[in-house]
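assembly run, all chains below
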Amino acid sequence: MITFENVNKTYPNGTTAALDVSFTVPAGSTVALLGPSGAGKTTLLRMVNRLVDPDSGRITVGDRDISQINPVTLRRSIGYVLQEGGLLPHKRVLDNVALVARLNGASKADARERAQRMLTLVGLDAELGSRFPHQLSGGQQQRVGVARALVGEADVMLMDEPFGAVDPMIRRELQAQTRRLQSELGKTVLLVTHDVDEAFSLADQIVVLRTGGSVAQYATPEELLTNPADDFVADLLGLSDGARDLHVVDRGGRALVTDGSGRFIGRVRA
Amino acid sequence: MKWLSQNWPMVIDLTLDHLWMTVQITVLTVLFAVPLARLSMTNRWLRAVAVVFTNSLYAVPSLALFMMVPVLVGVPLRSTTNVVIVLTLYGVAVIWRSTLDAFDTLPPRILDASDAMGVTRWRRFWSVELPLASPVLVSALRVVLASTISLITVGAVIGVPSLGLLFTDGFQRGITAEVITGIVVVVALGWLLDRLVAVAGAAAMPWRATTPRRSRRLARRVQAQSLRGTDGSAA
Ligand SMILES: Nc1ncnc2c1ncn2[C@@H]1O[C@H](COP(=O)(O)OP(=O)(O)O)[C@@H](O)[C@H]1O
Ligand SMILES: [Mg+2]
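ok done. output:
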């Protein structure tokens, strides 16, 4: 479980990135931080592993106040996936993954074996382990990034726009895989995204942030669609201009579904 | 050729002297310059010193430094220590600055990822920062090697034995074969050590054998820049 209690953060240059933020990520569930660019999503995420410290307020991970935990120790107990994988370019793929296991005290042989298993788990050929990151496609690098976050067997995972840099088809594939892994492994996940579809596709609950770092609404996707708190939330979700509206049209006795721009996207199962 | 057949033991002795000084200077240069570069990454005062030091040192002729260092440090003028100190200063001027540039341009996302995994500061330096800066370091090292090997010969003017002695002695006594031998051996030594560093560098950086064009271009540019600095004023 992760909790934020009245967390504030203003950077030295005067930018406020978190304004009285409170929310909880229940154990085993996925929460998305959703909001426009610059709203403070990354800042909140980086507070969880103390890459950023709040000015005031309290953050707990697994019931422990993280301000009392040594940052290096804390970070080793939390998986972190970032955009474009963030892999070390001078280490082979397998060693990139094994490094995290090594940091957590595994022997060299054990770390490599666990790394190999993680690569398989995220759907990568064993043969790719001996390559360097730049010899992999963007989607493959991203999978390695996920494997690296999983290898430490942390209960808590942080993901910062994990699939932002890959093309839409690969992104959907990776999202599907993340959902599958999530249902198998039951990690507590905090995810940053500015993509409404990604938030809906992966998260159990969504924290909607507005510019200036305040929480506009914290709710399930279902609640957000039925009761957006205000115009800001409705606009962000695409509820105001009809972008997220689906329409049912009749075509020769079949009920088809069109999206906000009138394109056919599916049919209604009777 | 007759000269060489009578004097080859001396040539070998001088070559070994020359080589030994080169090794000392190179090792000392790296030992001083790399920590200085890393420290000046975060220390504003050191960074300012780096700029002044590297910009001004090559404006001082090496012969003048060979005269000044004994006065300032108290080592004998005609000693290898004098030559080693002076040329280490030149080496540090090149490597400090270019390695600082390399540290400054490390990809922030990679450093960030390292921190996020729980890599300690110390480990991050050894296993992330230094390896990623090493292409530039190796390029700069090759520049330093080339300039060191030729600047050591200047030490012969103040009487410190090296292959430079073949130049001074050959000129004074008008022995062309001696001068030519000196030139050939200096060039050969420079070529050999350059190859050695290049091959060792490539072996230590297998990840660069395959692509990253951008970082290679950067390394080449640093090499070109430091070369220009060397040719401009030293010796
Ligand atoms: N280290 C920093 N120093 C100063 N301002 C920062 C820093 N990091 C982020 N900011 C600013 O804080 C705000 C929130 O940034 P961020 O958390 O990265 O937002 P998001 O991830 O939602 O795009 C932005 O205005 C950003 O420019
Ligand atoms: Mg961000």
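Residues A 41-42, 192 surround magnesium ion (ligand 2) (CB under 6 Å).

Residues 229-235 of chain B have pLDDT under 50 and may be disordered.

not gonna interpret more than that til we talk
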